[in-house]
Amino acid sequence: MSRRASAVMAAACSLAASPALAQESTPVMDITRKADMQTAEGPAEYFTRRATITGQFQRPAPSRISGALVRFEPGARTAWHTHPLGQTLIVTEGVGWTQIEGGPKLEFHAGDILWCPAEHKHWHGATPHGAMAHYAIQESLNGSPVTWMEHVTDEEYLAPVKAD
Question: Which single residue of 51, 83, 107, 123 has CA 20 to 30 Å from 67?
């Protein structure tokens, strides 16, 4: 490398190492520590039986992503609901059931990833015999990630599961 090129490279490196420039150009990673995460009861108007919601988050614009870890006790389930841009569920423990309105009730297991398409009325929850947990991830449209509807009846919840 020539002296001139070395001098230019050295000047560029010293500018890049400048604290003022580093603060302006280096993105900051935001970490929410497990110990700092809040756990809330799932509201009775949206859940049947006990469910808890931990680490609920909403990312700032331009992102539209929000999510949380949702734990369902045996027999707990969501009310019917839709998501304007769909929803992904990443199942972390247990066995659960889900259903899109008019479709068969399906069973899922820890390690499965579910996708519910946009604007499809659906519900999900634990089986009567064991707890289930999943991460729920969805996007907001016009400031809302979900539209809640009526509760799932016991008859709907206890209907037969479609065999694979």
Answer: 107
**Which pair of tokens denotes residue 146?**
């979900």
Give exposure, 128-146, as e/b (b: 16+ Cβ within 10 Å): eeebbbbbbbbbbeeeebb
Choices 1.10.260.40, 3.40.50.720, 1.10.760.10, 2.60.120.10: CATH for 33-157: 2.60.120.10
Q: Are 39 and 22 a contacting pair, CB within 8 Å? A: no
pLDDT at position 102: 96
Report the length, in residues, of the chain: 164
Contact present, 122 and 99 (Cβ < 8 Å): yes
- Element of type H or E holding 155: helix 154-157
Mean pLDDT of the chain: 88
Q: Which helix (H) or strand (E) holds 99?
A: strand 87-100
| pTM across the whole model | 0.81
Six-digit token pair at 52? Answer: 């808890």
- Contact (CB, 8 A) for 155 and 122: no
What percentage of the chain has pLDDT greater than the value 90? 80
Q: What is the pLDDT of residue 18?
A: 46
